[in-house]
Model the fold of this input.
Amino acid sequence: MTKNNNYIKRLIFSFLAVALIVIPASAFAAAPDGVKKDMLETGKKVYFKRCVWCHGVEGGGDGPSADRLFTRPRNFIQGTFKIRTTDSGELPMEQNLIDTVKNGLQGSAMPAWGEFLSENEIVSVVQFVKTLIQDRDFGDTDEEVNIQDFGTNPWGTKGPYHLGVPQADIDAGKEVFLKNKCFECHGGEGRGDGNPTMKDDWGFPIVAADWTQCWNFRGSRRDPYNPFNVVRTVSTGLNGTPMPNFKDQVTVEDRWKLAAFVNSLCPRKNIDKLTNKPIPDFLIQSVYTEGQVSPSIDDPSWQSPDTDSRIVAFPEEQAENPKRHYIAMAGQITRGKRNFDPKTDDLWVTSRWSAEDNAVYYLVEYHLRFMSQDPEYPDAVAIQWPAKLQDLFGAEKPYFIMGDSKKPVDIWKANFLPQDYSATNAPKPDGYKLDVKVEELVGFGIESVNAKESESKVQVVDSIFKQGRIKILFKRDLKTEGEFDVQIPTEKFIPISFMQWAGRDKEKDEHMAISTWYYTILKPALPQSLYYMPPIMAVVFVCFQGWLVWMTKRARKMYDEGKIRRDELPK
Amino acid sequence: MNKTLVSFLVFVVGLAVFHNAIFPIFTPKEIGWILNRYVYFLLFVAYLIITHFVLRLKPPIAMMGLFVWSIGFYFYKFVLYPPIPWTLFITYMVMWSIGTFLYISQDPETFREFRKPIVKTIVGEYKFAQIILLTAMPILVGFGTYKTIYPSYQEPVELRTVHPAPPATTKVHGKTYPLESTNNPFRVDEQDNYKDSFPFLDADKHEYMKYVTEGGTIFFQNCHYCHGDQLNGLGMFSHVFNPTPANFIDPGTIAMLQEAFIFWRVSKGGPGLPNESTPWSSAMPPWEEHLNTEEIWKVILFEYWYTGWHPRTFGTEGSEG
Done:
């Protein structure tokens, strides 16, 4: 392929680009962008310093990191790229690759390079990546790229994206979702729990995306709530994965409605600009409950949205409910047998306590696509506390991975197996009951974790696995007898952390997912003075105002009558 | 046109234009001597003074006081960077309000002039203003009381020493290393000679690049989850941990430390820290459990090569690459 030929192609392409603006709403064909040879030297330098560790010396996706990454780094040899604006199966546009390198692929190890490399370095490394492709050729005359038509955002929303989309369109989007059977892979409520047997083009297992964690969408482009991302995915499919395109089944207008629906499932949280994940709620607030706390997860008192109430206000009837706190989880890769492939990204924790009950309740929820049915490796989740809270001084805590020899931890662990379940079942709206077994452990470090000798006091009063979401409601008395039981005071900051084991992955002991130390606090009842002090203060102020008016008027009058003289002004 | 109104417009419209159009220009990614927020602020103040001078505007003293007070508010709330905590903001604003008051009451005439509209409002000569004020204030007071009594909690702030004093010696895999005099055995050449060399490709040609390649391999099998693929502390698990993993690009970590210090930190990890550095919550693994001594030295060599920093040597300051 001569340079000249390429140039003409690019000219034609530019012409077509102009044509696209003039004649909108039609996909058009062009040749892929060729390799800019003069940039290859810089590109190679960048690649071998920055990318080779994952993508490998020949671009085979077999760098040293590869065997411990799930999703594995991309093998470039086949020229298969997920995030494109071109039709299914086609090569991407150069700009697609540049955007990918700039923004990274969220939810995978592929980082965002936009702030780290210069524009020139990014464009150069993209050229170099193109030369690593062996099975296809960006300069091939047979290659054709058809840029898809995505229409425009019908509501004109520019973010925050929860505003301005009518509920009717979201409901219409749900119909499109049902009609096109997205749930077969993505599950009944979009948590990716539809199909456990999928493989990608390289033969590695793959699961469907969890729509309720849209910040992990590969193509989220660091703008996770933007419905355009979903429209693009549905229009182009993700090459190399089972995710198909729906451009013939779903009209462009309906794709936007579908996107609005998919988007509405993703809880609104404050997203950290650096990590592209929600900012953790480091203080878990346990709400004081009048009378008894309901032991049923379905009770209205336990219903609160996942959304941050500062972004979208809770509905009226849930305004007083405790909020769902976001707890970030990672594989335990610090000690012993490490877990590089955690199945859970986060937990959601809600808490209530009651003085009458003398008990505290923690509702722990997390998303899990598929449960284990193996009694030897049940799924499990645990809350970890300092066992001897009273002995800790200042900020001191036990070691966050199951304590240490001097400072033990108290671990409330729930092991559970689903009833009448199979991972390949169709979505079941009322969920699966769980057989739960509670263990109370005391940990002096990972080598020394044992069942407590004292009587078990922790109960799981309700539990369910529903549409890819596990819910476990823990209950315990505030004060207990056991030597290594945490004694839970009110109105005090108490360290708390969480652990989770995925049974299907044969996780057990320290091979698990873990959080760092958080705090929890049992908030007191609202003080009575909240109801009478504000009006009293207001009335006092009214009296003060009356006095002020009276005084000022009196002073006026005295001036006017000449009883007192105003201060003389200097001439 | 009424000069008071003109002055008011000069202020309000000017602030809107400055804040929305000119402020962004003065807050670029890379801050310069001219293009920074404080120069912007001075420009805004200069604009106010000059327009008032040129147009010969003399707004009443009450309005001048309002302008002065608002400028202070604007500065502390929007211009000052990094943003200050709420309590400090209140303190500054109290000081600024006192200053404004002094400005108003500089002589009896201005003070009287300032008082006039207030007195007129109170006695009811400005009926409308009086009604609004007398009803709004008690409501605000009640609301403020509610806000103050309503219990709200924020997680405790915890301070930790990031770089504690290291021990004199450290024992790794049965061998004792004095931190004062231990060097990286794989630093066989001057690092800067290999700035543009390729890991893997040049590993056979240069011994140094062989070690860098091996160190990088270890890094990308073990460390990048936390310290990030770019060594900037933003790995895929980094958001989970508190304290957050160290950012090696930052001049405040490996750039100012000796390699022996790093060797101690990498070998002993979080649990090896003294209490003032919160060993209980550091996710940093004690790598002696997973790596041998040579691997630890190689990954340290790699970190310096990748970031371009030079380790601090005994008796000298750390230097830039």
Summary: Residues 246 and 252 of chain B are 9 Å apart (CA to CA). Residues 317-321 of chain B have pLDDT under 50 and may be disordered. The longest strand of chain B covers residues 169-172.
